[in-house]
Amino acid sequence: MDDLICFSHLRWNFVYQRPQHLMSRFAKQTRVFFIEEPWFDAEHTSHLQLEHKENLTIIIPHIQQGLSNEECTFHQVNLLRGLFKQENITNYYFWYYTPMALAVGNYFSPKMIIYDCMDELSLFKFAPIELKDREKELFNKADLVFTGGRNLFQAKKNSHHNIHSFPSSIDKEHFIQARNITTDQEDQANIPHPRFGYYGVIDERFDIDLIKEVAERKPEWHFIILGPVVKIDPETLPKLNNIHYTGPRNYEVLPKYLAGWDVAIIPFLCNDSTKYISPTKTPEYLAGGKAVISTSIIDVVTPYGVNNLVHIADTADEFIAAAEFELKRKDHQHWLQKIDMFLSQNSWDKTWSKMLHLITAVKETKLNGLGNNIANNLKKENAYV
After folding, report:
1. Which CATH number fits domain 3-169: 3.40.50.2000, 3.20.20.80, 3.40.50.720, 3.40.640.10?
2. Each residue of 178-190: pLDDT tens digit?
3. Is the CB of residue 244 less than 8 Å from the CB of residue 192?
4. If pLDDT is split at 50, 70 and 90, which confidence band does 375 have?
5. What is the dihedral of CA 237, 241, 247, 251, to 10 degrees?
6. What are 155's strand-pairing partners?
7. Is the pLDDT of residue 378 over 70?
8. What is the mean pLDDT of residues 195-213?
9. Pairing relation of β-strands 47-53 and 263-266?
């Protein structure tokens, strides 16, 4: 492949998820430049902060404060042009996670444009009002579109001629470690069992009231919540003796925490902001050998709920019933065999490979089209000889 330039609304060092999984795999084949959204904190001169990870370069624009939108775009474009010259980036693809990056991307001429639509960002809290228009523009420009889940694919499938569904995958070898870890993490070692655990972002999608009610009704159950709190006031989170907020943890150590839980949970609200999400943690929890209780997120219900791989619970009564069932379960080994069979065809390696196949097909189509155009022009020229 040529160089891959990725524009992302998610920061590389925030929560390790879809962009990191895919870009890390592309970086084994080609140079990847991962461009984050800018920080508006430069006191004097706008500049780029670069972090190199072998074949992957993380780029954080730091833009001067107090500039207009047009000036901000101008600064970013000039900084990237300088980077392209410095790194000898001449043949490249653009990979978008956020349509808002078109404001900058439109000033360049990539050989191919790929849009990995992993979420319906327009429904998230604080989404820019112009995001929907930007996405329509991106659909018109893109050569290839991926979606992050089945329900999102259904919503977007008529927006592009070459669109494909790639739900959340899994790094199974990483999370299966949880099945064999016997030592507990120090910061949760003193928390009594049974433990119900969650890792991920804690934001407007998190069902605070559900966790609060269950924790109040079952004071002997303990809830361990790992992850950063964003877009909501931390003071709104329930403060009970059996709810433990441990803050964010690195991707590498998540299996160690997971190993110490009795049940893993996905307590998301069912609203517009979660209508199209495909939580990566669902297969991760299962690979770690943990029973899962989730609210009725569409892409969790199908396929995991309908195949009896996770419990679906939207109320405290439903949650408690599912939890009591799992805490008494005796056929754990038979359940694990069913999980492993289901997950056997699901991996980020396979997702990446299928994406690469589709990218290669588009590349060949473009080359053939270019060849045909050249041949037709030669015929026209020869006709006058």
Report:
1. 3.40.50.2000
2. 999 999 999 999 9
3. no
4. very low
5. -110
6. none
7. no
8. 96
9. unpaired
pLDDT of residue 370: 62
CATH fold label, 172-335: Rossmann fold (3.40.50)
Residue 42 near residue 63, CB atoms below 8 Å: yes
- The residue extents of the domains of the chain are 3-169, 172-335
Structure tokens at 47: 């500049």
Judge whether residue 59 has pLDDT over 60: yes
Topology alike, domains 3-169 and 172-335: yes
User: Considering the entire predicted model, what is its pTM?
Assistant: 0.89
Is residue 281 a contact partner of residue 132, using CB atoms and an 8 Å limit? no
What is the CB neighbour count within 10 angstroms for residue 27?
A: 18
**Mean pLDDT of the 209-225 span:** 98
Own/partner long-range contacts of 43-48 (Cβ < 8 Å, ≥24 apart): 46/75, 46/76, 46/79, 47/79, 48/79, 48/80, 48/82, 48/83
Question: Residue 374: pLDDT above 50?
Answer: no
Q: Measure the CA–CA gap between 80 and 250, rounded to whole angstroms.
A: 29
Cα Rg, the chain, nearest whole Å: 23
pLDDT reading at 239 higher than 80: yes
Amino acid symbol at 319:
F
- pLDDT, averaged across the chain: 93
- 356 burial (CB, 10 Å; 0-12 / 13-18 / 19+) is middle
